[in-house]
Amino acid sequence: MNVPEGLRYTKEHEWARLEGGDAVIGITDYAQSELGDIVFVEMPAPGKKTEQGKSCASIEAVKAVSDLFAPLSGELVEVNKDLEASPQLVNQDPYGKGWILKIRLSDKAQWDGLMQAAEYMKLIG
After folding, report:
1. CATH at 27
2. Domain residue limits at 28
3. Which among 23, 60, 62, 85 could disulfide-bond with 16, CB atoms 3.0 to 4.6 Å apart, if both were Cys?
4. Per the domain annotation, does 34 fall within a domain?
């Protein structure tokens, strides 16, 4: 499994990358492989508030529908519009073109509570 250094991870298999005061959010390589072929990503409209650990989007795959849980609290500032026409980008490039949304952080201290790559590797074995 691909688990890049420099990102932070959750037990629910989301990743986050800081870009200034915003966090780019997606699902891990492990999560996309477990879900299988992703056919639809339902995302809220920008401006919605997110709360750490609460569902903020859903991902529909051929064999399951899964919630995306916000790894951090804040305000949704952008969604990946490319996923509307090409949801398979989450399978093909989960840490790049397959990102799902961006959150403007309301509590940067939450970042330190997320797992680093080595911790996440232990979780997924």
Report:
1. 2.40.50.100
2. 8-107
3. 23
4. yes
- In tens, the pLDDT along 22-63 reads 999 999 999 999 999 999 999 999 999 999 999 999 999 998
> Hey, is 69 helix, strand or coil?
strand
CA–CA dist 62, 54 (Å, integer) = 24
Q: How many domains does the chain have?
A: 1
Taking only the tens place, the pLDDT of each residue in 82-123 is: 999 999 999 999 999 999 999 999 998 999 999 999 999 999
Measured CA to CA, the distance from residue 63 to residue 39 in angstroms comes to 10
Residue 114 in any domain: the answer is no
Asked if residue 124 belongs to a domain, the reply is: no
Beta strands in the chain (DSSP E): 8-9, 14-19, 22-27, 38-42, 49-50, 55-61, 65-69, 74-79, 101-105
